[in-house]
């Protein structure tokens, strides 16, 4: 088209066009194309590098979260009273263990192996690949698991407050290790009682071990969910160009292998698409560049979305999408700082569902998860967009209400939440009504510090539960004093039980209503505090029951009473038993062991059980009571008339004696002829073949009416106050023992 200079005008015009317009334009096109090519090459390299770096950070974060998730999965089944009882049972309930501690973990959480190890490091249950195995399956994992169990026991020996981090319900140890030539996540958790149940001895705790292989299935899941192309686990880092790797190391630093993948390369994609067009016209090149830039932008947004998702997972609850404890703490700190700059307050609400465990036990964990999700939606709907709703535990939630002008605003929110949560739920085809208990603390009135404010909200929640649940309670200073007082009592009581020189047993005689002779005595524990003097049982017994100290204390009282009764001419010795003791499957064995050590005949021992604890602990009571009655031990029902008062239950459990509560005895009206209620109780008891004892007899009129009503024996200050064993022995020598 363009030729060399010529004398021909047409040729000259063409030449001038070529040299003045076309050549500079062509040169400009090529220069621009070169500049654009250079820019795109640089942008492609940077985009590839950025994408690879972000994916590497994402892979590292997801692996760490996977380790924490395995441990979190375990807590759904290891912090459970029934699990403790089942694993310690002498007759393993294999279907139950499969459905809750073994095969279920594989089915629901994709755990590859699960083991239950007793306190002697012997496996009592194994699961591999979703099937129950044999004890020999544990042997290949023992060298890896044994050190982790040792670490767990060491952690359990630490003070309770140092055993857990903020995201844990129970202490545990999790690590990466080689299991059957596979890199795997290995998590060790104790199978322990739930909150409020007795704490177990560290070396006697049964341990649950879960193994999640870092295998092809795991890598494929990460590849699908996080766009990690050709993800796999390999013994060594790939040397192929373009691959990225994350080393897998145990806590000891041992290298187990690498997680490798081919990073997403938006830059390479850009170059491949632009090469065919770069040889064309500048217009096509520019259009292609715009398309590629748009594509780059889309890829960058995808990467940013992946990063945002990882950030979301790090600060939000996986089940409900609400803020987790980490984000909750950060938002609470920020809210308190902003409140400090203004005149408004911050309300912190702590609450959990009432009887949530009952839902899990009756309908299963999936239904429990559905209830948690439904609860989260209702909380979000009941709050403002400026408030923070967080899930900080299993069924525990918290709300940060900001910009509060008065306590009334927080109270309105509490009422709104109670009303919203109390609406019926439809779960697994069942209509449920679930309540909520709320504890509230206000900043800066109650506290300015995040930790202190949370502590006081938790105290208020405890008071709400103690007051009957289904309500809200605002923190008051006297609550804190009450908690401190209970902790002081617990500390001193623990020391007193260990020392053994502050506790003593007194005995209140029982007299025959007809003959007036001593028929037996009731053993009562007394605590002579070195600084506070004689402590009332109503003060320290509830603390002992809530902390688990009632078991060693109760066993000590039982042995002291049995030892004293051997030397006394009494028909029977009565000892009070707590519901906590009755729930222990080893209780009957311990009572029989005490009888054998002291030499007391079982027929002379009578165990007194309160009516409420007896009825509410039917499933746990029956095996213990049946075993004791088979040996000849008698059973008495204390405080009869204050609970369910069902003679059907009493006949079913074959109770020997009922003790009419003092509140009925105090209500005897001599002028009106006594008490029709007491007369009815005596008549029904005698018709059922039971003995009747009246407690709290303080007047001669009461004694006369109770004797005429048909009571077998009487007990109270009119006859005798609680006395020492020496004084009781002296009374027995002066008064012939009756029947």
Automatic annotation (TrEMBL):
It holds the Pfam family CHASE4. Signal peptide: none annotated. Residues 344-477 form the GGDEF domain. One of its GO terms (molecular function) is catalytic activity. Residues 486-736 form the EAL domain. Keywords: Membrane, Transmembrane, Transmembrane helix. The lineage of its organism: Bacteria, Pseudomonadati, Pseudomonadota, Alphaproteobacteria, Sphingomonadales. It comes from the Bacteria. The gene is cph2_8. The chain crosses the membrane at residues 21-44, 274-293. This is Phytochrome-like protein cph2.
């Amino acid at each position: 088209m363009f030729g060399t200079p010529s004398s021909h005008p047409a040729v000259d015009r063409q030449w001038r066009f070529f040299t003045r317009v076309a050549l500079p334009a062509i040169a400009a096109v090529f220069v621009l194309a070169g500049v654009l090519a250079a820019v795109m090459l640089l942008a492609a390299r940077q985009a590839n590098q950025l994408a690879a770096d972000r994916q590497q950070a994402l892979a590292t974060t997801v692996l760490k979260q996977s380790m924490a998730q395995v441990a979190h999965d375990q807590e759904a089944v290891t912090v459970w009273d029934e699990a403790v009882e089942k694993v310690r049972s002498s007759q393993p309930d294999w279907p139950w263990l499969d459905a809750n501690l073994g095969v279920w973990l594989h089915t629901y959480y994709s755990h590859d192996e699960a083991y239950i190890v007793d306190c002697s490091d012997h496996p009592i249950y194994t699961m591999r690949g979703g099937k129950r195995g044999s004890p020999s399956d544990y042997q290949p994992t023992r060298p890896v698991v044994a050190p982790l169990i040792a670490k767990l026991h060491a952690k359990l020996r630490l003070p309770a407050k140092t055993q857990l981090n903020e995201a844990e319900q129970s202490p545990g140890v999790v690590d990466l290790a080689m299991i059957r030539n596979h890199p795997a996540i290995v998590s060790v958790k104790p199978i322990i009682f739930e909150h409020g149940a007795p704490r177990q001895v560290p070396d006697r705790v049964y341990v649950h071990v879960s193994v999640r292989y870092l295998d092809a299935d795991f890598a494929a899941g990460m590849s699908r969910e996080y766009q990690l192309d050709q993800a796999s686990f390999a013994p060594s880092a790939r040397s192929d160009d373009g691959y990225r790797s994350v080393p897998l190391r145990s806590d000891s630093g041992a290298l187990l292998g690498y997680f490798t993948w081919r990073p997403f390369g938006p830059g390479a994609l850009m170059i491949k698409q632009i090469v065919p067009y770069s040889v064309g016209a500048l217009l096509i090149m520019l259009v292609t560049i715009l398309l590629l830039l748009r594509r780059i932008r889309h890829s960058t947004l995808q990467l940013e979305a992946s990063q945002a998702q990882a950030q979301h997972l790090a600060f939000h609850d996986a089940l409900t999408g609400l803020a987790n404890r980490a984000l909750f703490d950060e938002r609470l700190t920020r809210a308190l700082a902003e409140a400090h700059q203004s005149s408004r307050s911050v309300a912190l609400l702590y609450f959990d569902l009432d009887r949530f465990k009952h839902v899990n036990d009756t309908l299963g964990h999936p239904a429990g998860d559905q209830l948690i999700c439904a609860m989260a939606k209702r909380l979000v709907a009941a709050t403002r967009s400026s408030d923070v709703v967080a899930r900080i535990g299993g069924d525990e939630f918290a709300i940060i209400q900001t910009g509060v002008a008065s306590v009334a605003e927080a109270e309105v929110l509490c009422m709104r939440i109670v009303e919203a949560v109390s609406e019926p739920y439809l779960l697994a085809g069942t209509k449920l009504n679930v309540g909520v208990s709320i504890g509230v603390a206000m900043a800066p009135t109650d506290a300015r510090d995040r930790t202190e404010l949370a502590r006081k909200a938790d105290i208020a929640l405890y008071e709400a539960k103690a007051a009957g649940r289904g309500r809200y309670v605002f923190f008051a200073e006297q609550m804190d004093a009450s908690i401190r007082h209970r902790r002081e009592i617990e500390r001193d009581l623990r020391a007193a039980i260990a020392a053994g020189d502050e506790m003593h047993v007194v005995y209140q005689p029982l007299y025959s209503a007809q003959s007036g002779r001593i028929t037996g005595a009731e053993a009562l524990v007394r605590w002579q505090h070195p600084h506070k003097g004689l402590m009332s049982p109503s003060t320290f017994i509830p603390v002992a029951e809530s902390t688990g100290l009632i078991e060693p204390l109760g066993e000590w009282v039982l042995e002291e009473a049995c030892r004293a009764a051997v030397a006394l001419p009494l028909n029977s010795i009565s000892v009070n038993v707590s519901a906590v003791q009755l729930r222990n499957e080893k209780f009957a064995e311990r009572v029989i062991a005490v009888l054998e050590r002291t030499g007391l005949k079982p027929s002379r021992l009578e165990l007194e059980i309160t009516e409420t604890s007896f009825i509410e602990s039917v499933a746990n009571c029956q095996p213990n009571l049946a075993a004791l009655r088979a040996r000849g031990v008698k059973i008495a029902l204390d405080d009869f008339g204050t609970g369910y008062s069902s003679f059907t239950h009493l006949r079913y459990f074959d109770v020997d004696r009922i003790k009419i509560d003092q509140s009925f005895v105090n209500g005897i009206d001599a002028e009106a002829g006594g008490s029709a209620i007491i007369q009815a109780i005596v008549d029904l008891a005698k018709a059922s073949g039971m003995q009747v004892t009246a407690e709290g007899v303080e007047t001669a009129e009461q004694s006369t009416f109770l004797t005429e009503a048909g009571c077998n024996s009487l007990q109270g200050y009119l006859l005798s106050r609680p006395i020492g064993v020496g004084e009781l022995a002296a009374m027995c020598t002066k008064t012939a023992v009756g029947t």
